[in-house]
Hints:
The protein is an all-alpha fold. It is built from twelve helices and four strands. The chain has helices at residues 9-43, 48-53, 55-59, 62-74, 77-102, 109-130, 137-159, 179-209, 215-240, 244-269, 276-298, 305-322, and strands spanning 105-106, 134-135, 272-273, 302-303. The strands form two sheets. It has a two-stranded antiparallel sheet with strand order 1-4. α5 runs antiparallel to α10 (244-269), α5 runs parallel beside α11 (276-298) and α5 (77-102) runs antiparallel to α12 (305-322). The longest helix is centred in the first third of the chain and has 35 residues, at 9-43. The two termini are 27 Å apart.
Amino acid sequence: MALPLATGASWSLLDVGYLVGGILFLYVGAELLVNSASKLAIEFGINPATVGVTIVAFATTAPELFVSLIGSVGISDNIGLGNILGSNIANIGLVLGASALVQPMSVDRAVLVKHGPFMFAAAALLVVLGLDGSLSALDGGALLVLLALFTGYLLYNARQGDDVAVTEDVDVEDGGSTTLRDVAVLVGAGVFLLAGSMGLLEGSTNLLRAYGFGDLFIALTVIAFGTSLPELATSVVSSFRGEAEFSIGNVVGSNIYNVLAVIGILAVVNPLAVETDVRSFHFPILIGFTVGALALMAANRRVGRVKGVVLLGCYAGFVYALFP
């Protein structure tokens, strides 16, 4: 899959094209996947609320899943693990911070009580399992078990009518005439995600490796930003529309599924080595951002612009600390 590393201006321009194109393809693919999968599920009789808290939530992690699997198997373990760590930190510092800066947000108590503990548990379990220097297939299985418990918990709440229905981004149409079209869109979404993943990985690794950056730095920054772009766009737009619950829920849900689903699947398919730097620096940063986000959301159950600036500042500090 890999092209020769960039050695001149022409290769650099080509890699920039791969990078930008990959991010755009990932964004389009994620949008198509969320909408087509949700329509199909509802057309087959699945409750809209159940769709919202399961299929839509899982679909938003598709960019991370595609990029992490391809990067980890085809390039290095640092790509897969670094992408998830960087994406989760970006979701909190960049996505939540930018959303709060656009418009102060009130925090629904249900998000803190029902989903907040799972976000912390997912991050803590990842750290505990990775402290021995590896994430084995057994470790991946443990993450997937917690994923099953979380999904079952969501389904139970959905049946009780406690969770919100499918988001406004999903345009549900009546009748079954659109089923074949939705299937075609679903397949097309997969193609976009695959092409976007390959483009993002190709462009970022070739371009930044040429300037001396390692795979872990690339995964934690450029790749993580690219895979977090759907969450960033969706949360900022939702905040602008005054839909605070969705902006915050998007961040919390994405962080849970990133760890439990993506790392779980990745470790089962291709057990991961966890470098010393990851255990001594990146794991504590992940826990710090996770606890800090929950604390900020719990304080007055409101994330205002000052807190948004704090989150963005912390994320900028994290990225700065990554530079050699």
